[in-house]
Amino acid sequence: MLPVDDPPSPPSPGRRRGRGRPSVIDSGAVAEAAFRLWREKGFADTSWADLAEATGVSARTLLRHFPTKADIAWIGVAHATDRLRDALEKTSAADSLADAIRAGVVSSVSHHPRVQRVNPAWLRLIADEPELVAMAPRAYRPWIDELAAFIGRRVPHAPPAICRALASTYQAAAFAALTEWADSGAIGDSADAVDAMLGWIDIRIPETPTRT
């Protein structure tokens, strides 16, 4: 749901692949530097050599981790999906479906200062850059699939199309909240903006299966 991932745990001593080649890179730092560069130079006009110079990571290593520049832009979705899954698993059956989803979605938003700092630039970029706009449905699919699967488990008689529609609605609402937060000056925690937005959503579950 957010552009960069939380800082990785430091690698254990000796975890290296090949001479002088680290097994991990700080992908969050790479994304932060990339967004700073894209803001100055433009997404399309930024080369891999430019990214290598800005990040301090060789172009070859960057390409090994990120097949396209767009993969850098959407790197945070996987970590947001992990946070969503963990939060949903902790919800109680006593919670209403709307409350459980709200808690999970809000928890999927990272509180890390790096993410909060970079997020406004990320939102502007993916709204304006055609390549990233086109990639959005595929990038968000794992997050939406995770939430749809949870809804299906909580409401077994709900058709899969309904579960996916609800999950997509929550993704769109969360993104709208983040966009408004960024456009308003990025004041406060972006997760609080998402929480306030989702407070407007409720779910009415039919007692009998719904036909689609």
Automatic annotation (TrEMBL):
TM stretches of this protein: none
Pro residues compositional bias, start-end: 1-13
Region (Disordered): 1-23
Domain HTH tetR-type: 24-84
Molecular function terms from GO: DNA-binding transcription factor activity; transcription cis-regulatory region binding
Keywords: DNA-binding, Transcription, Transcription regulation
InterPro entries, A to Z: Homeodomain-like_sf (IPR009057), HTH-type_TetR-like_transc_reg (IPR050109), HTH_TetR (IPR001647), MftR_C (IPR041347)
PROSITE patterns: HTH_TETR_2
One Pfam family hit: TetR_N
DNA-binding region: 47-66
Protein name, per record: TetR family transcriptional regulator
Organism: Gordonia lacunae
